[in-house]
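User: I'm curious whether this sequence folds into something compact or stays loose and floppy. Could you predict its structure so I can see for myself?
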Amino acid sequence: SGLYRVTYTGNESIRPDDGRSKAGARLRTRRRRLEAMHRPGSPEVIERAWRDLSHQDRHIRFAARVAVEHQPVERWQERALAERDPLALVTASIALARNGDASLKPRLIAALGRLKIKRLSEEQQLGLLRAYGLVSLRMGKPEGKQRAAIVKHVDALYPNVSPRLNRELCQLLAWLEAPGVVPRTLSLLKAASTQEEQMHYVLVLRKLKDGWTRDQRRSYFEWFNRAAAHRGGHSFAGFIQNIRNEAVEMLPDEEKQAL
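Assistant: Here's the prediction. I'll summarize afterward.
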C-alpha cells in the first residue's frame, strides 16, 4: 500500500463544489425516481424506465435498466429484441442476457448484429462488446453460425487505437477462438507501453490452445523473462507464475519439450 498527497498547481478555482449545480440536481432527481422503481410494478414502470435506457448519463442508464429488470421479463423481452436505438438496444440486451431464457440467445445475437458497429461511438462499441460477452457468459458459449456472426461483426475493429476497446476485443475474440487472434494480440503485447496492458494480453492468451506457431509460442513465453523486471505487490510474482503455469498446461507435449 502507499500514501499519497496530491496538490494542484494552476489558475482554476480550488473552492470546494457546494453540490448545488442545477444540472446535477436534475440528473440526481431523475436517477432517484428510477431507483424508486427497483421493485415489481405495473406495466407503466417499463414505459417510464425505457426512455432512459438510452440516456447519455451511464448512471441513469444503469438505474433504468435495473428498474426494467425488476419487471417480469415476458413484458419487455420482445421490445428489447425489436429496439432500434443503439444505446437502448445495448442496455436492453444486457438486461435480457441477465434475465432472459437461454432460448433467446440466437435472437439476441441477431438483434445486436443489426448495429452498424463503425458508426457507434467508442462508449457504444464498448457496450456492444460487453453485451456480447454477457450473452456468452449467461446463455452459453456461441457456436456455429452464432459464433461466426459475432466474429464477423466485431473482428475488423481489432486491433484498435483504443486500449479500452482492445481489452474487450481481445477477451471476446479469444473466447470465440477467432482466426488470427494470436498474432494480432502478440503484436499488441509487444507494443504495449504499460505492464498492466501487457499482463492483460498474456492473461487472455494463456487458455488459447489452437492457432499458434512455435515461434509465436516462443515469443509469448519470452515475455515472462522480461516480466521479471516488472514491479507489483507482495503477490505479484505469484500471479505471473500462475499465468505461466496455466499457459504451460495448454501446450502439447512436443511443444513443452521444444520450449
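Summary: The CA atoms of residues 87 and 124 lie 6 Å apart. The first helix runs from residue 22 to 35.
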